[in-house]
Amino acid sequence: MTDIPLAATRDRRLAGRLAAWWRAEPASPAKRVQFDRPLTPWLFVLPQIAVVVIFFYWPSVQAVTSSFYIEDPFGFGSTFVGTENYRDALASTEYRNTALFTAFFCAVVTALSLGLGLLLAVKADKVIRGAESYRTLLISVYAIAPPVAGLIGMMIFDMHMGPLTQVAAWFGYDLKVGIDYWDTAVALITISVWKQIPYNFIFFLSGLQSVPASVREAALIDAKSEWRRFRDIILPLLAPTAFFLLVINITYTMFDTFPIIDVIVKDKPANNPMTLVYKVYLDGFKGNDIGGSSAQSVILMVVVAALTIVQFRFLERRVHYG
Amino acid sequence: MANLSLKGVGKTYGGAQQAAVTGIDLDIADGEFIVLVGPSGCGKSSLLRMIAGLETISTGEVAIGGRVVNRLDPAERDIAMVFQNYALYPHMSVRDNMAYGLKNRRTPKAEIAQRVEEAARMLELGPYLDRKPRALSGGQRQRVAMGRAIVRQPAAFLFDEPLSNLDARLRVTMRMEIRRLQKRLGTTSVYVTHDQLEAMTLADRLVVLNGGRIEQIGAPLEVYRRPASTFVASFIGAPAMSLVDAQIENGQLLLERYLLAHVGNAPGPVTLGLRAEELRIGPAGIPMRVEHVEELGAQRIVHGMIGAQRLSVADGSGAPLSETVLVSVDPARLNLFDTATGRRSELRLTAAQAPLPV
């Protein structure tokens, strides 16, 4: 055997290993329980990977790349400009105002929709008998698509025939949604909150109903004040639900209020409040500033990621999972 | 520490046709351990929950320490309750679980700490004070639930089947522990259970409930020896008292035509209650066809038929059994019940009787 060249031995070894790989004897059941071909599992996850890559990674990479370019509005080529898009966005007062409004909008809508959802759920929880119809009535709002909600909202707040405008008029107030900055803001907040309450309500209600009856009764014997029982016993047991809803609600106000804003603000004068997401759309698709809008969406992505990390790192630790 | 008094207490749930509990009169002395026992749906839990204030009282009056509490919140009734599934606050440490009721009653901090320490020592919970309930075993959780009641130093303890979630061995030790603690603290206690053995071993006085009414109140042995009705007879004691149909004719008590005793009771059909340990297998008596034998170690329970009626006999002899054995009984130990109403009627023996060789 000594006169066989080294390379040949190596080749043979390689071939042998390839053959072994192909034959892929299931070595030990402990190691290889599921598949006897190493390619099979990849085939199974391929559709999922494809979805993630096509709809998430690809656009993300595109956004990041195009944020470093200034693109010709009509698609005739692009110029590399480095971080100029970012510097432009961050230096612009308009962008900063929109960011401020988004933060304000996010805080107010989340607080109000969580608070009102919880309040309604607590009240509904008390009248368990009526809860079935109560629940259906309140959840039905959630079945309305955001643009429809926006449309309904727009009609309610309409400058000429909206009932709320009329009510405001009785009190001597001239409500000008779509023209006055804060009037529009109030309308946006109201519609967004209204749209989100049923969702929060359902989760809070099921959270409340999963608090064991005997724990409530033990609390009834331990504490006379209803508020104390709620604060010390019920609320801590609702914390996991509340935390989940907080994350969901922040995401909702940041992204899913888009159609509502679109319906209210579209075709109106330009000084209306809007969120960062809507501005990304406006600058990108209406303003044809693909580079600038990409830079904005990258900033938004970073902010949301940071926010989520903060939530999970700092808030979740204080949450008790039963 | 206080006495408890129930006067004509009843409960009808909204939408229900029949009352769940009716006309309960019960006076519980200070420091007494009362066990409410009965099958499920007999109203024992409803009664306890009415005392606790977790259910409204439909009729009648509940007084704790001479104070009528019908309209008071549970927190104002000066009672502490131990629940079946412990009902601990899952987000609080053992220490906070015990302290919570005291904090809400504005007890000084130093005193809370001292009471919690004391309860923890009594219940051997010291090492677990800073743990959450989920890190404890079932028995430890039950101890915490008891600790929560003890630290309050209430007028009365209410126990709602506190041991039924524990395994059999733990149940026995916890049962003794509850009894020991209650004796030591001398706190009036009302304990609900469906387990007649638990009821027998714990109670100063038993209250046997059936269909929302009291069947019998009495010391455990009294209830065991002299059940007030066929219901109590069949519910208290294991194996259950055998209930058989018998006849009284011409001053003779006859079971399947065999003479048991000479009696002065009115003639007619009667129901006879026979405790397994009062029956003897011997050289003479009524022939019983042996069906099956439960070997319990110290003794065995022989189940068989006399004519068409079932009978259980406790036998400690260990002697081999033939297919048919002869069973006899001391007439003084017979329990007689009215067949129609199921109520106890006193057996009036005539003539001096030796165990009859029938």
From TrEMBL, chain B:
Q: Which Gene3D superfamilies match?
A: 2.40.50.100, Nucleic acid-binding proteins, P-loop containing nucleotide triphosphate hydrolases
Q: Which GO terms describe its biological process?
A: carbohydrate transport; glycerol-3-phosphate transmembrane transport; glycerophosphodiester transmembrane transport
Does the keyword field hold Nucleotidyltransferase?
no
SUPFAM superfamilies in alphabetical order = MOP-like, P-loop containing nucleoside triphosphate hydrolases
Q: Does the keyword Metal-binding apply?
A: no
Q: Which domain of life is it from?
A: Bacteria
GO CC term, one of those recorded: ATP-binding cassette (ABC) transporter complex, substrate-binding subunit-containing
Task: Quote the InterPro entries the UniProt record gives.
Answer: AAA+_ATPase, ABC_transporter-like_ATP-bd, ABC_transporter-like_CS, ABC_transpr_MalK-like, ABC_transpr_MalK/UgpC-like, Mo/tungstate-bd_C_term_dom, NA-bd_OB-fold, P-loop_NTPase
User: Which GO MF terms does the UniProt record name?
Assistant: ABC-type transporter activity; ATP binding; ATP hydrolysis activity
Q: Which UniProt keyword terms apply here?
A: ATP-binding, Cell inner membrane, Cell membrane, Membrane, Nucleotide-binding, Sugar transport, Translocase, Transport
Q: Name one Pfam family in it.
A: ABC_tran
Please state which protein family the record places this protein in.
Belongs to the ABC transporter superfamily.
Q: What protein am I looking at? A: sn-glycerol-3-phosphate ABC transporter ATP-binding protein UgpC
Q: Which organism is it from?
A: Mangrovicoccus algicola
